[in-house]
Amino acid sequence: MNGGHLFQDSIFALSSGSLPSGVAVVRLSGPQVRATVEAVAGKLPPARRAVLTDLRDGDGELIDRGLALFFPSPASFSGEDCAEFHVHGGKAVVAALLRRLGQLPGLRQAEAGEFTRRAFLNGKIDLTGAEGLADLIAAETEAQRRLALDSAQGGQRELYAAWRGRLLHARAMIEAELDFADEADVPGSVSHLVLADLRRLERDIEAHVAGYRAAEIVRDGFRVVLVGAPNAGKSSLINALARREVAIVTEIAGTTRDLIEAGLDIEGMKVVVTDTAGIRETEDRIERIGVARARDAASRADLILELVDATQSTSSVPISPGEQQAPLLRVATKIDLGQPRSGRFDHFISVLTGEGIADLIAAIAEKARQATALGGRIAPTRLRQIELMRRAQAEIGIGLDLAELELQAEHLRLASDALGRITGAIDVEEVLGVIFSEFCIGK
Questions:
Q1: What is the spatial distance between Cα 288 and Cα 301, in angstroms, rounded to a whole number?
Q2: Which one of 222, 270, 284, 408 counts the least CB within 10 Å of its CB?
Q3: Does position 438 have pLDDT exceeding 80, yes or no?
Q4: Is the pLDDT of residue 436 over 50?
Q5: In whole angstroms, how far apart are CA 105 and each of 36, 61, 95, 416?
């Protein structure tokens, strides 16, 4: 999968986002790129050098004066000949340039993700790199950026390739003992030498899979759910945290009937705060649905904030043990009204004066850091990856429990195939290369 000659057609697309903008970048890839650049810019610029030039339509009329860049195959993002036109980001300018490109033979508008797909098919990146690029583009916080960058730069690929190399080595030892035991270069009973490493590999995969939950929270957000009785101050708190009016606040109990969410960036981490209906017994059918949704949201939270009106003598309706899967912080609200502060609460806040809000945000940030702590380790970022790693782990375990070398080798083959599918690289001939390189068979 390399060489940059898998496709007969060339593609183009606006790659710089919505218009209007200061500058717009139009990207091209494919075998017709050289001829296209010459037709639009007059001549092909030197490789990887930006050249200021006139860009013209089919009648020779000036479209814009901008930059042209050329990246010859295979030293390009897609592995094919690539080019970029940098023009002023007006809608009419870009439309004229795209119209000109669409009139040239062998060119068409790119489909979603097609540049990255060509990069994968041409061997420039693997599947985890492509997934990392998608996450990098979608990253909203610093933590998401760092996680995505690990994948985009090949961190996952290197780890899974190393694991697969260990499996290939184990298979080589076992198959060498099976097929070449009469060769002088092959020591007897070499397969037992790899069993300890396979046990370690099982544990390595298990520890890696355990990091998925932290990576998932980084990608999707640390979920904080506000619960409490009606008028406990949940809607006021979500508005204060979001610094905008997310929820309607009135003195009427039961104003919030459905879940209301606000995505926040707290110390570089994505935090999703959910306002819920006040939990109480009610005959109102719609409000009962809201209460049920509040309890369900609490059961799926990463952190629960149970808000209690400090001016009320009674506490909020408690969350049952079955609903409280996550850590819970009890927060007294409306402390500006001068009520005595009891030690029953973790935090005391006033949305009106802002007292205690900073400390509460710091506590949320600390809980989010604990939930997303990876300690610099590479982590899986997709369920697809988890399923394939668990399949590989299961095949290793089955193989280790068998006495027959032939069956051991087969299950190790299935395990290495599962790991290969994570990155999109599977070569059944790889194991033979390992055997011959290590044992000089048939010299």
A1: 20
A2: 284
A3: no
A4: no
A5: 9, 19, 18, 44
